[in-house]
Write a structure and sequence with these properties.
With 96 residues, the protein is α+β, with helices and mostly antiparallel strands. It contains six helices and four strands; from the N terminus they run αββαββαααα. Helix content is 53%, strand content 10%. Helix 3 packs across helix 5.
Amino acid sequence: MKTIDELRDGMESNGYAHYDRDAFYHGATEVCYIPENAETLDECYSYLDLLGIVEEWAKENQDYLVRHETDVQTILTNMFENLTWEFPQTYLNELN
């Protein structure tokens, strides 16, 4: 298993977070996003990790889905494309 630093070395960075678009779109279990302040491998996210987070958020925020005429997959994709440094939960909390 790679270390968090080894994962970061193989990913693109915006100067804060690290991301891998290919892993998000084609490698469901590969790490695709590492927030700026991540310190452990548990804070590195694969597509499936992000999907689970969005699904849990959506269960508690059905009114948001209806109000914005959106779904889990759209929110997931938009979240991944717009994360800049934050943890996924922070991004979702800011949607409300």
